[in-house]
Design goal:
The protein has 264 residues and is of the alpha/beta class. 50% of the residues lie in helices and 13% in strands. Strands 3-2-1-4-5-6-7 form a 7-stranded parallel β-sheet, with helices on both faces. α1 crosses α8 and α4 (107-135) runs parallel beside α5 (156-176).
Amino acid sequence: MKLDIWKGRTALVTGASSGLGADFARHLAAAGANLVVVARRADALESLGKELAARHGVAVDVVPMDLGAPGAPQALEAEVARRGRRVDVLVNNAGFGLYGEYLAVDAGRERAMMEIDVLVPLELTRRFGGAMVARKEGWVLQVSSIGGYQPNPLYATYGAAKAFILNWGEALNYEWRPKGVKVTVLSPGITATDFLKVSGQRATAYQRLVMMDSPTVTRVGLEALARGKGSVVPGWANKLTVWSNRLVPRAWIPGVAYRLMKNA
């Protein structure tokens, strides 16, 4: 589906300095949407902003910000208002995972991950999505993971965070659809980004086999959002993984996930 329904509108993309976030921004700019891009890395964000403005002739507001800092969502809302932007499309992409057995994962890093992966999307959706509901029009894309569909040893907390996003996002879509606001949950599998590097995992044979590219994954998510789908899983291998969980006794699933994720 064409994304030009957002031509001339404004999309806010978090975690936009690289990976999925940068490709969400590229697709939206190519469709004619103006952008507010947010991430910690100011240099990468500035480079992306210049690239998109020059290539597509859209307005790009660059907002370097650590969304995990206290009061960051409120500060972002205030900054967007100060710049005179009205957010029509919100892409809650910022996030990261942590690999390892539960007690081996640093507790401070785990808390920071939960802040970015769960609490920040909650607050940004309430602030910007709430304004969309008041206007009776808008689009919100939540980024989950196929890890949200089952328990994940070695990614225990991350998988649980993504399960929250998946269930919350689908519920929100049901509540808000009659109010004119569409909410879609995108649940990718392993994608060619810096995710593994940040999480501390080496790619397994399974991950190398099923890995998707970021432009394809992000395009699938935005097309689903444009259609108003409640959730979408990109790629046949990821769809098969999610579907097969229904056929396997739940007691078996953690063991299967562990074997697929464990570094030798």
